[in-house]
Batch of 4 targets.
Target 1
Amino acid sequence: MSGEVLSQSEIDALLSAISTGEMDADELKKEQSEKKVRVYDFKRALRFSKDQIRSLTRIHENFARLLTTYFSAQLRTYVQISVASADQIPYEEFIRSIPKMTILNVFEVPPLEGRILMEVNPNIAYAMLDRLMGGRGSSINKVENLTEIETKIMSNTFEKSFENLQEAWSTISEIDPYLAAFEVNPQFLQMVSPNETVVVISLNTVIGETTGMINICIPHVVLEPIIPKLSVHYWMQTEKKEREPQEIAQLEKRIQTATVPISAELGHSEISIQDFLMLDIGDVIELNQAIDGALTIKVGDIPKFLAQPGKVNKKLAVQVLETLKGGDDDGE
């Protein structure tokens, strides 16, 4: 006799089937014992967890904001860039998904190994080029007939834009990206093997009235050394950094020599707007402070001391009488 233990749902289903006469016990148990097979495509191996993909998405959302600022300044027109999706797919599938002729910027990212690909839709690339050359930002797709001048302008623009990736990635790795190659035909570009898993971050891009996509293709070999830093545990952990004694001493020295404003408040008064508008030269405003009362000394805007007025060497001065306790909270 088999020692298999049925779950509660299996027991409920069995009792229900027996009571209604739809199925006998042996037939139902045979159904439950059938193996469930799930199809797995070894060509589409998932090497990144959902958690890691979400971390990459957050990083490149920051990259998209930096690109928006950069291109808005360079093109002097409305630019909006945002993350549309982030997926892990085989490199071969990514190459098939982009246009046959497009703008391909290949970047080295030392000290990490491998290269990152930045694919820019031709409509977007030519709108940028037109703006840089003084035009209105119209798009003409003639990527297969790029001149040397157009190629140079485009490559310089995208190389400088990719420097923003250094800031976006600073939380997980210190990289120094630079443009290694500029290509227009994906078939001539073989960064990794066709079945290699890559992460593709698609950026929805709007430049004036032109829209298109910018795709960032990151092979697994690039991310492999920093994969542990993409986990939630890494982002949530708090490391307490111990300050060096020299650093503390230097900080104290700077604080001691810092300049702060000190003021003696003779008093204050409240009047109506109508009375304020009627003020004239020679009018007297009565303060709420008694003539023999202590003055409030403020450091910045915070009351700190009580003092009495006087003179030192024919100059107005105040003599501190006492320190106000809780002065940090009495800011009014």
Target 2
Amino acid sequence: MNRINSAAWGRRSALAALAVLAGLAPAQAQRATKTTKASTEKAVATNRVDQADSLALRKIFDEALLRGQSYENLRYLTGTIGGRLAGSPQAQQAVEWGKLTMEKAGFERVYLQEVMVPHWVRGPRERGEIVGNKDKSIKVAVCALGGSVGTDGKLKAGVVEVKSFDELRSLPDAAVKGKFVFFNRPFDDALIEPGMAYGRAGDQRRSGAIEAAKRGAVGALVRSLTSARDDNPHTGMMAYDPAVPKVPGAALSTLAAERLSLLLKASPDLQFELEMACKTLPDEKSFNVVGEIKGSKLPNEIITVGGHLDSWDLSEGAHDDGTGVVQSMEALRLLRATGFKPERTVRAVLFMNEENGNRGGIEYARLAAANNENHLAAIESDGGGFTPRGFNVEAEPAVVAKLAKWGPLLRPYHASSITVGHGGTDIGPLKEAVKPKALIGYDCDSQRYFDIHHTAADTFDKVNRRELELGGASMASLIYLLSKYGL
């Protein structure tokens, strides 16, 4: 018997012995061994893939932390350009800056998408006073809500306080007509996620002026949407109903709201005096800014990542949404800098007019549909530039499950939480227009976000460099995995 045959006989003898011990026939034992071998080979191959991906992600994070450009880009956007309300000269400067920044980063194609946007202007600083007996007055911190009409001089009237629309509807006409309706529903601080509290309190800001006007009120005063107790009033978009008279809408700081509520209890007949010169001008031409890296294998499958370039006018718009803008551009730069050639086309989109109309998101989706584009997924960063936690996903359960399997790769960077949740306002219109498999919202620690959201306090100094760069790297890492494996 030659050496090879002896080895073969040895293997057969071993199988026979295994079969006796396991109660299997030799043929069954051989099949079991083949299955075990195949499983082992598959596990080894999977480990190799995981190791390669792990190393790739480590390179992305090294590049971000050691040579990241998000922070310095944000410094320029906020410090040199500042607040960027849609339709303003600063918004146009931001468009030009975004295009130039992406061209310098070496993206293969950079272009603009024209979009008409609303042009609301705040005018001179708003004034608000609580007026008591003998015209004694207390100045309070107040700001116009975005889109509000002005007061045409000083508007002085009594005040009725409510916590909800249902409470307002229950009041007799005489208690409301000719007065300001003061919506004083606070954040629910028992909720762990501040975003949920924001959502539950938000109707009073969005529709408070409509509900007040329906009852004959002269205006709406709204408690700022925040847990913070300070004198920073929070602006934000409000709406009007064409069938209902337009009355002014203004936000009170939380301290101002608490003071007004306390004084109303002591003196229900007190008055409030409001002066706002805001107005809406004709629509202005503006642009989304788009930068693209073409896919090497599946160029017709598109992954979009973006944030909104516009901001409210009270501040520099650092966390809302300067951080999302610079992180989206940085995500593509990180892929290029680490030598990764995406298999699918990746786009960074700086959307215009998220804050008071979402015209940029709507136009991007319209053009995607008109061009018959195939969007695999879209990612949005619009929750601030704080420490990464992971991603929220709008998708079918099987897609969410597939994304969740990548969690362990992101765990070393504290970005492994991949759960069902809201994708984002700018990318939302894509859902119906081109039906991507997933809308994905970058999720970071939001506990401090609503302290400064839509206020004068949303400034560059509130952004931590490492937190910001980690966020861009987290987004780049997810794009790497989406581009390589699809959904």
Target 3
Amino acid sequence: MTTHATGPLAGLNWLKRGINLGRHNARAVFGAAAIMMFVALLPSVLQLIVSAIVQPDANGAMAIAAGANLLSIVILSPFMGGFLRLIDATEHARPASASDIFQPLRHGGDAGRLIGFGLLMTLYYVIIGVALITVFGDGLLEWMTKVMTLQQAAGDTPIDRSQLPAAPEGLGSLLGLGSILFLFLSGVYAIGFGQVALGGRPVRLAMADGVVGTAKNLLPILLLAILVVLASIPIGLVLLVVLSIVAVVGGAIHPVVAAALVLPLYLALMVVMYVVMFGVMYYLWRDVCGPADTQGNGPPPPASSNHHQIEL
């Protein structure tokens, strides 16, 4: 299986198609997104519970957060694979329901392979992050520990800026280079995970496909990132205003009413974000790694729903 180079405006195309995702089977797509959203909340809830019980210091809080992130990868990876397969089914006009998101957890569903890819990518993130901190982040960990300690001591009270320690000198270089590498690794993750979930590729070959595919499509991936950032600013402001108005109106009646009005809107927004995000991920993978006749705007031809089992 080979990777393809797309045009410079492909990033705009991926975003547009991600926004339009669900038109073929909205109940399945949005229902599955809602399931995955609630599953994604479980590690965070567990982290809050453990932190409330243990009441750790700054180092302990970072350790608990790292454990929650690791648990999130293990739990979410099969659901992400199931969601991508569900999207592929709807785009190929195959029968699909929201419960199909559980397919990787069933016998022969490749949950182990999906988790393996997620853990391997996380390992690369850690290795690259440690390398960047070693070169550019002298004093960064000590600075972060001091800031977290001040935050814990302040509680709900805002931190006095005069108490904040000075940021390390290499922080700007670290953030700039880290952003570039994060963008590249995001492309590797999207393409490689799609290869595992949909392409039937072993983890090591899917990782290679992700690296090569991202290198061939740096320009459209960069354009996609710029579009997301630019669009998130006005959209975020509008949503903030809407949620604030709803909260004020509901709060005038009772705080419980405000929460009852804002929470469903917030959850609905998160579901929409999941649909768009994984839609972009799917179309990126399909244009870079899919057959030539499934690329572009046209609907893909019918395909078999069988998933080939390829050993790692």
Target 4
Amino acid sequence: MKAEFQTRRQFASDNNSGICPEAFAALAEANRGHAPGYGNDPWTAKASDMIRDVFETKCEVFFVFNGTAANSLALASLCQSYHSILCHEHAHVETAECGAPEFYSNGSKVLLLSGKDGKIESKAIEGAVMKRTDVHYPKPRALSITQATEMGTIYSLDELHKVIDTGKRFGLRVHMDGARFANAVASLGVSPKEITWQAGVDVLCFGGTKNGMAVGEAVVFFDTELAKEFDYRCKQAGQLASKMRFLSASWVGMLQNDAWLRHARHANSMAKRLETALAGIPKLKISFPCETNGVFVRMPQAVIKGLYEKGWKFYTHVSPDDARLMCSWDTTEEDVDAFVADAKSLAEKL
């Protein structure tokens, strides 16, 4: 078992990385002595206030264990069972949450929208809303936007405003899946408020795990009316941690001195290095613009098989026909260069 954890860093998922030093130190500090449970501790209060400072606004903050719970419970707070949720066809809430959004909303239907590079198009929103307006059709009520997208791309400020404005025009409440929100902020170089509440986002699922925390996501309600009784949803769903400080303390460590943005920038830069090197290898083709910490590359099956045989781990099921390579807070230049060298060697043999 010990040897298994001494293997090289991989590109399968940014979930595979360990805990970053800032989060680990905060956890160790929170582990000293006793503290009240169920979120009534000073760490949770401090983390919530720090998140309010990051977004420069009053907001309600809740900490849950994982992204599926964050997304599903947040969407459930926006909908009734007879409503529908609009999202991109490759969105995580559709492809990788085992029907949890429908389950926790008591049956709200998820309707899929098209769009290039993993981004929803405004005309697709209008088409879904106007397709039918009779009582026999699940009434569209929520728009779910993924920032950064499942394809590693990001909505620019203009694109975000266009999509959200379209949704608001039809009375849709706006949810943002921000599992890699830090990477999007780091890439765009904007303040967090500019791509959330100032753009019209009602609730954000702010990801921490993929950015170097051990566990825990924050559900941030900018429309505080929508947060009423959300604590009951968390409790009912098994998401009210008794030792809540071990979910919230990491946020204190990450938000201090902008560690969350520093780690995101590093992961993004490693992905750009990886993209640039792979783009120069014949027979490999970059599928989507690398705008955050993920690289999608189309490669022959012989190359994929060869990389697997050499011990590399990465996913091939996220996007049809593509290998997805995720960089993390701890990915190094040496990791990237070693992977590229093996990919190049295999491609040259074809």
